[in-house]
Amino acid sequence: ALTARLLDAKTGEEQLRGSVAQRFYFSSQQVVLPGQTPRKDMESDLFAEGGFSAFDDWRFDAVGQYTARQSRWQGGALTARYDPRPGYSAFASYRFARDAVNVVDLAFQAPVTKNWYAVGRYSYSLAHKENDVQVDAGLVEAIAGFEYDGGCWVGRMVLQQFATAARETNTAVFLQLELNGIARVGTDPLQLLRRSIPSYRMVNQLAP
Fold this sequence. Notes:
There is one protein chain. By secondary structure, the protein is mostly beta strands. It is about 5% helix and about 60% strand. The chain contains one helix and 14 strands. It has one helix at about 190-195; strands at about 1-5, 15-20, 45-55, 60-65, 70-85, 90-95, 100-115, 115-125, 130, 135, 140-150, 155-165, 170-180, 185. The chain has a twelve-stranded antiparallel sheet, with no helix packed on it. Strands 9-10 form a two-stranded antiparallel ribbon. The longest helix has 7 residues, at about 190-195. The two termini are about 45 Å apart.
């Protein structure tokens, strides 16, 4: 494997990064799990990744897995992130894995008016094939919500819709009242927001 990085001389922040890796085997595989066949290839797929920062607040990254003997990509991801300050961020990504995943993701957290913040995510699966079977495009998950910072308390309302089958979805509603430093009452959406929205920050923990 080989990695190269370019750092800002004053701040130490990473400006540019690139990596490439591949595994080489010096002997044939002698041990396998029951029902599996020994590995015949003497080298693995080629893995590559890279990223760069631009305009202080933007970050772009890419990663991929390439099979040279078949001359095709097996999987990869492209991401873009806008993160100017805590509580204000946007994220977009495209991920694919051959015969498995073909998904576009959008997510954000942003102030709307004084003390009000909006959060959201939309994950959509594009049409693709899985084991030679055509899979139609459709929703994976959608999230929309608002948070209000009342100073000594916070209110949260979040709606979530997610696919449970090819043509079926479930909807969940989260309502929560938080008294800072005392207690939280209601259904808790924080774990959902931290998992679904990159760079998510609780509005009552934002720096002044």
